[in-house]
Amino acid sequence: MSRIDTVFSQPKRKALVAYVTVGYPTVKSTLEIVPMLAECGCDIVELGIPFSDPLADGATIQEASFQALQAGVTPRTCLEVAEQIRRKTDVPLAFMTYYNPVLRYGLEAFCTACARAGVEGLIVPDLPPDESVDLDGAAQNHGLDLIFLLTPTSNNERIRLVVEKSRGFVYVVSLLGVTGARDSLPAGLGDFIGRIRNETAKPLCVGFGISTPDQAKQVGQLADGIIVGSRLVQLIRDDKLPYEKVTSFVRGLRLVLDK
Amino acid sequence: MKYSILPDSRGYYGQFGGKFVPETLMFALKELEEAYRDAQKDEDFQQKLNQLLNDYVGRPTPLYLAAKLTEQCGGAQVLLKREDLAHTGAHKINNAIGQGLLAVRMGKRRVIAETGAGQHGVAVATVCALFGLECVVYMGAEDIRRQSMNVFRMELLGADVHSVDSGSRTLKDAVNEAVRDWVTNVETTYYLLGSSVGPHPYPMLVRDFQSVIGRETREQILSSHGRLPDYIVACVGGGSNSIGIFFPFIDDEDVKLIGVEAEGQGVASGKHSASLSAGSPGVLHGAHSYLLQDDNGQISETHSIAPGLDYPGVSPEHSYYKDTGRVSYVTVNDREALEAFKLLTTTEGIIPALESAHAIAHVTRLAPELSRDTLVVVNLSGRGDKDLGIVNEVLTDE
Question: Is A46 one of the annotated active-site residues of the chain?
Fold first, then answer.
């Protein structure tokens, strides 16, 4: 059982998954914030490795990626950051990035480095399972969970493919579109999750567009976990030690999920 | 070896191609491929396409023996495939008409596109006006500045031109933004990609719709000279005009094919767009292909005096032809392209697009080395009206 699997083995607990862009606004802030996220009730942290052309991301994460790259953050930086975080907390870590930086690093070398740094999972939004044979092989060699995404346009055939290939959990994209905070949840989310549930017992975590405790509560009733990204990145941008905005936001989410 | 059977069923040309896209689009790509395969078999669709290519675009475009340029070069006979004479002034219309018909067939009433030089954007805006479709064009802020006349043309045609301010603010960023729109509006929107790049089936679609250039060239040269050409030269940005003229000759190994990339201010300066000549394999915009990237897999910023060549990726099919050696790829820098631009203008009275001027520049190096009975065809992919501002700027600086 992987460290990510353990998260979902606790009955009734809804998982809270947080996304941060490594190095935004600074590497130091990422090192400070991630252990705090774990203390405030995050169950899994996604560490975003910035990429120059983040075509699945909205304005917030585009800007965070751009600034991190300007500051010189590389995949190697991110591996070092993960290793340092791992010394401070045992929260499961997953890298989220695009395929080209991983390919350039070398699939086997990257997975080796992830395992050594204490990273347990990989999320690569521009790598559907259809193209994942090579990375999946390398990930399995090193005990990494390769997490795939489902979207409202996935038909039943694709749902079956994605849930079969996905390890750790299935990343359910709530809406058609890119990452970013939204005012309301998309209509039909319950039906969409129901279609996936018919095909698998694997944990389902819903992300994209979740930014308020109210949304978190609603999604928590439908799925096994929620993923917050852009809203958190916005708060991180405007916050500093002791990160009261960030921690109170995360505690608020934890609270509604536990109710 | 038979190249013309590619891509394979997964959209690969050797190790290049594929579908590296967010899950949201996997369904749409499959739907597009099915609609295209159906349309290929539908005589009515083919007839409509051919009629529009003839009566609306003005095809076939001439294959013109450039006698004065030939004389100037002092070697091989140089023939120009006059895509600059196609409606809207470049080869881009061939693909826009084909995919526009496909959009209508699929019942999509909203069309989005990316554009660099603006030629593809103008072609798409034109087709949308003709078919009564809503049209949104994404264009980098830097390109909007460089190609303001084309922006005006698109707006006159009824398109909504969105300025893209992220990244290098050129074609690459316009593609990112178009993909973001598509991911959001995929159920109602047709993405009309303009070059032979992107996820399968786009490189195949664009190649097939552009192959009319090569098919006509073949017929025309067989009729005028009774044989195939010895060389075909075309510029390569994403690679659509070059693949269009090369593909109908791809299995004729005696026909030498040369793709000309933009060397900008020189490969050593880092300010260039020579993805095949100076890049390495990677994944950008949905396909595995050669691209310009740094050691960390971040995509490099590119430069060319020709906005249509200013792109860090290239067609997966060209990537495959590079590795197999079927096509040779060479480079021409900004200065050489500008010289060729002036040369063609003064010798033949034809003002070429700066993109096409790269191909002409290589011919001025190649033709003098060859004998008089050698036939060199150059794809003159577009006319240069859109570039007068850029050329004026450079000439004034001097």
Answer: yes
Which range has the worst mean pLDDT, B76-85, B126-135, B145-154, B248-257? B145-154
Q: Which of B290, B195, B289, B279 is nearest to B244 (CA)?
A: B195
**Mutation site for A-interface testing, chosen from B15, B19, B23 by largest number of A Cβ within 10 Å:** B23
Q: Does A230 fall in a domain? A: yes
Domain of A159: which CATH number? 3.20.20.70
Task: Give per-residue pLDDT as tens, B225-283.
Answer: 999 999 999 999 999 999 999 999 999 999 999 999 999 999 999 999 999 999 999 99
Number of domains comprising chain A = 1
The tens digit of pLDDT for each residue in B39-73 reads: 999 999 999 999 999 999 999 999 999 999 999 99
- Determine, yes or no, domain membership for A108: yes
**CB pair distance less than 8 Å for A151 and B283:** no
Residue A21 lies in a domain: yes
Q: Whole domain around residue A182: which residue ranges?
A: 13-258
B186 contacts A153? CB cut-off 8 A: yes
pTM above 0.90, yes or no: yes
Residue A2 included in any domain: no
Residue numbers in B near A170 (CB within 8 A): none
Query: Would you say the ipTM is above 0.95?
Result: yes
| Interchain proximity A53–B23, CB inside 8 Å | no
Q: Are A82 and A90 in contact (CB under 8 A)?
A: no
From A57, A120, A136, A224, active-site residue? A57
Other C-beta atoms closer than 10 Å to the C-beta of B130 total 14
Which residues of chain A approach chain B closer than 8 Å at the C-beta? 51-56, 58, 62, 66, 69, 74-76, 98-105, 125-128, 130-131, 148-155, 158, 162, 173, 176-178
Identify the closest residue of chain B to A102 by CA–CA distance: B297
First to last CA, chain A: 27
- The helix-helix angle for B316-324 and B202-210 (nearest 10°) equals 80
